[in-house]
From TrEMBL:
Keywords: GTPase activation, Metal-binding, Repeat, Zinc, Zinc-finger. One of its GO terms (biological process) is intracellular signal transduction. The keyword Ribosomal protein does not apply. This is Ras GTPase-activating protein 4. It comes from the Eukaryota. Residues 4-127, 138-255 form the C2 domain.
């Protein structure tokens, strides 16, 4: 899709290596939304069109694709969110999409941070959907100062100053609320003024209550949305213990608003809204400065460079043997990214191949298990080969989605169809339907294999080098079975990379939506065909599913094409391949993190125009002006043959944040706050097409600008229009922001810049819990006489590599202990959550 009028293309690229970041505390939240079942029907057809919205502390971060016309949807979508460790909960709303009206809420699942902490290995299972109660849909914080005035024996007052609030729930159609505060104490109530059209109100009002004796009552501060017609909407509350306040004397700060759980809940809908299968895992990480991890990184690099030695147990073998199946994928991707950053990924993969081939193995089962070698190669292809995958599969996948041909070869699943013939209708025979399906499938397969066959030069050099090593190693291991070295390559390229992407293109970002039932069946059959070509034994596949026999000639031709392709792929010697690992460390194959069309808005008037000060030369969005965020600046330019109009240096970006829906009438607008050439703070407003695009753009910008020295701590989520900010109604354009920035909230993507410190931290955390198992597994695997002396070789010296590893882990544990901040003192003011 081209940029078109008002839709400039924007590209975010990774900047040059920045200064190493200081210690960072963050939470990594892994979310997999698997499927739903027994959902209620919301449409008159007796079905629903469900999708999920994931909110973290009531902020929408993720939207799954819609699965049409089903009450048992399958999504299988995975996400990883990096965020500040102070978040409270994750809520997953199941929605029913409606084309002509507002989408219906089916139900939600709420998982608190405390629940995730209780399951360090992650939560996995079915959870029942609960009804969405408006009084529980609260968000935001309120800034209060509470104190006791007067001394014992005299008249004492309980004083509460309501200063401001931020990020309140939006209850009105204009995308805002009309908030006021209601205070209750000792049977008395007082109310603040109403602030119209703001989720960031400022009151600065003080309320006084005569302190009861004894002061055992609670102070309740409630926030409400005022409505002219109908009842007011509840926005949240804070409850304080006045006894705690007497001890403290005075307390001031931001307090989170809590839902009202004092009202009885009706259970009529409990269990009738269906359920959701989820996998959620929380990891709290303290990432130390990168130099702290150098001993661990150097040790791992040295182990890879030393290679396999006969009669010795390699550290990588121990890691493979002691890593459980549940976390092997995670360990594999951390190792791959770590060695990519060190320029040693080819050597690492080659060592894995050599160690795997040294085990007793059969040619027909080679690399079919989920060993560390298999998982590492699979992760390596995803990290380095996604652009290549998109280029190869994209055209054929798009054709399948657009044509929606009926393809079926299994007689037990064939549906006969009415077809027009000279103005009359007749029913096609089963044989005609299957022959027609075979032709369609053969056409798709032929197109795809032709594209693959021509793609060898486009395959990233580091992938070609890895496959060349694999090809040679397997050929040396099985000289009497020369076809096995071809199967070894296709077992990864076809079975673990191409076929899964064909079967579920949404999960590989090839499509924005899941396939419908007909398209999904076509993709499944095409993926089976590619698997059979990859197995290079179509007769074996036909034995399991004999109805694939009509496809046999095409499969035989495909095998020949695939062999020719692999021969070219592993035979290409290029200078650029030698550069990988010798010069600059190879990261993911392209520096581009994110690109696509966006709309630029101005703050006055109507229309998609460039924000004031964002570029030189002016320009109108209506003439197709474009934006590109390159490796150094953000470039603002029209399509060729026009010239570039202006730039924003990445180093000058102060914040990348969301914009309130009411500002431009859209909930998918972001702002880039930056300093222009004259030193003035300016803002560019860019509109995205959906919540996923919005958060992906914000994530990309935050990653490449995360180390900027002048990032803002607060910002304005509205716009300055007329004489005030639309969010907090401040009159000063340069006034302080009314909401906190969220620099640390990012989404993990395959195209992320490498973060060696984060990967080293994850490996340290994994190895830290394996020290006893590593020691035991070493003596178990070592086939020497020393291993028989005492239980598990007790008393015998450990090999140098393992001893050094334990020493490095001990030093890192000490660094973490020193880096842990002291526990904050317990607050004297007790905030209650009921």
């Amino acid at each position: 899709m081209g940029a078109g009028p008002g839709k400039p293309r924007v590209r975010v690229s990774a900047p040059p290596p920045a200064r190493p970041p200081a210690m960072a505390r963050r939470s990594a939240l892994s979310i997999r939304i698997v499927e739903g079942k027994n959902l209620p029907a919301k449409d008159i057809t007796g079905s629903s069109d469900p999708y999920c919205i994931v909110k973290i502390d009531d902020e929408a971060i993720i939207r799954t694709a819609t699965v049409w016309k089903t009450l048992s949807p399958f999504w299988g979508e995975e996400y990883e969110v990096h965020l500040h460790p102070t978040f409270h909960s994750i809520s997953i709303y199941v929605m029913d999409e409606d084309a002509l009206s507002r989408d219906d809420v089916i139900g939600k699942v709420c998982i608190t941070r405390d629940m995730l902490v209780e399951h360090p290995k992650g939560y996995s299972g079915w959870m029942s959907l609960s009804e969405v109660d408006p009084d529980e849909e609260v968000q935001g914080e309120i800034h209060l100062r509470v104190e006791v005035q007067g001394s014992q024996g005299s008249r004492r007052l309980l004083c509460c100053t309501v200063l401001e609030a931020r990020d309140l729930a939006r209850k009105d159609r204009n995308g805002a609320s009309d908030p006021f505060v209601r205070l209750r104490y000792n049977g008395k109530m007082q109310e603040s003024t109403v602030v119209k059209k703001s989720c960031y109100p400022r009151w600065n009002e003080t309320f006084e209550f005569e302190l009861a004796e004894p002061a055992g009552e609670k102070l309740c501060v409630e926030v409400w949305d005022w409505d002219l017609v109908g009842r007011n909407d509840f926005l949240g509350k804070v409850v304080f213990s006045v006894q705690g306040l007497e001890v403290a004397g005075q307390e001031e700060g931001w307090f989170r608003l809590w839902p009202d759980k004092s009202k009885p809940r009706e259970d009529e809908h409990r269990g009738s809204l269906g359920s959701l299968q989820l996998q959620v895992r929380l990891r709290d990480e303290t990432v130390l400065p990168s130099h702290c991890y150098q001993p661990l990184v150097q040790l791992l690099c040295q182990e890879v460079k030393s290679g396999r030695q006969d009669g010795q147990v390699h550290l990588v073998t121990l890691l493979d043997e002691t890593t459980t199946a549940e976390c092997r994928q995670e360990v594999a991707i951390s190792l791959v990214k770590l060695f990519l950053g060190q320029g040693l990924v080819k050597e690492f993969l080659d060592l894995l191949f050599e160690l795997e081939l040294a085990k007793p193995c059969e040619p027909n089962t080679l690399f079919r298990s989920n060993s560390l070698a298999s998982k590492s190669m699979e992760s390596f292809l995803k990290v380095t080969g996604m652009p290549y995958l998109h280029a190869v599969l994209g055209p054929t996948i798009t054709r399948v989605f657009e044509e929606k041909k009926y393809v079926e070869l299994d007689p037990s699943k064939v549906e006969v169809k009415d077809v027009g013939c000279s103005g009359l209708h007749r029913v096609q025979t089963e044989g005609e339907v299957m022959e027609q399906g075979r032709q369609h499938l053969q056409s798709y397969l032929g197109e795809l294999l032709d594209t693959i066959g021509k793609s060898a030069p486009a395959c990233p050099p580091v992938i070609r080098a890895a496959f060349r090593q694999l090809f040679q190693r397997v050929g040396e291991r099985f000289p009497q079975h020369q076809h096995v070295k071809f199967v070894a390559v296709t077992s990864f390229l076809c079975l673990r990379f191409f076929s899964p992407a064909i079967m579920t293109p949404k999960l590989f970002h090839l499509r924005d939506t899941h396939a419908d039932a007909r398209t999904s069946r076509t993709l499944l059959l095409l993926a089976k065909a590619v698997q059979m070509v990859g197995n290079m034994e179509p007769v074996a596949g036909r034995a399991k599913e004999p109805w694939l026999a009509p496809l046999l000639p095409a499969l035989q031709q495909g095998i020949s094409q695939m062999k020719d392709f692999i021969s070219r792929l592993v035979g290409m010697e290029e200078e650029e391949e030698e550069e990988e690992g010798e010069g600059r460390p190879p990261g993911p194959p392209a520096s581009v993190v994110k690109e696509g069309p966006l709309i630029l808005h101005k703050t006055r008037g109507k229309g998609p125009l460039l924000a004031a000060g964002a570029g030189g030369g002016g320009g109108r969005g209506g003439d197709g002006s474009g934006v590109a965020l390159g490796s150094h600046p953000i470039h603002i330019h029209p399509p060729p043959p026009h010239q570039r109009m202006g730039t924003i240096a990445l180093a000058d970006i102060l914040a990348a944040e969301k914009v309130e829906e009411k500002s431009f009438g859209s909930s998918h607008v972001m702002q880039v706050v930056y300093v222009d050439a004259g030193g003035r703070q300016e803002t560019a407003y860019l509109q995205c097409k959906c919540v996923n695009e919005l958060n992906q753009w914000l994530s990309a910008l935050r990653k490449v600008c995360g180390n900027n020295p002048r990032v803002l701590r607060a910002y304005h989520p509205g716009v300055f229009r007329g004489d005030k900010w639309s969010c907090c109604h401040q009159k000063e354009r340069t006034g302080p922001g009314c909401d906190r920035t969220r620099h640390g909230v990012t989404l993990q993507e395959w195209s992320d810049p490498l973060d060696p410190a984060a990967e080293a931290q994850r490996l340290f955390h994994h190895l830290q819990g394996l020290q006893g198992m590593l020691r035991e597994k070493y003596w178990e695997l070592l086939e020497t006489e020393d291993a028989q002396d005492g239980p598990k070789g007790e008393g015998a010296p450990l090999p140098e590599g393992l001893s050094r590893l334990f020493g490095v882990l001990g030093e890192l544990e000490g660094c973490h202990r020193l880096a842990q901040p002291p526990d904050p003192p317990a607050p004297a003011l007790l905030q209650l959550q009921a």
